[in-house]
């Protein structure tokens, strides 16, 4: 059993947390005329970047099997 998650899994979980925070700030800081909160947009941008990095880590792990081996 591997208790230490892969970098990609950590980044995906972080991105999910950022998306949840963005949704919260959208509800709390909704502006007139339907504009989204800039705080929420910042969280969404950070979540998107985290997901991009997670995909890069996954591709790296596929190319280099040593990176995807179980940690002892």
The average pLDDT score comes to 86
3D shape: elongated
When the domains are counted, the total is 1
Tally the helices: what do you get? Answer: 3
**What order do the helices and strands follow?**
HHH
* Largest sheet composition: none
Unreliable segments of 5+ consecutive residues = none
Number of strands: 0
Assembly type of the shown chains?
A: single chain
Instruction: Provide the β-strand percentage band.
Output: under 5%
What is the gyration radius calculated from CA atoms? 16 Å
Binned, the helix content reads over 70%
Structural class: mainly alpha
Distance between the termini: 10 Å
Give an overview in words.
The structure is a single chain. The chain has 72 residues and is mostly helical. The chain has one domain (7-68). The chain has helices at residues 7-28, 38-63, 65-68. 12% of the residues are buried.
What's the gist of this structure?
The protein is mainly alpha-helical.
Write the layout of secondary structure elements.
Blueprint: H1 7-28, H2 38-63, H3 65-68
Helix pairs in contact: 1-2
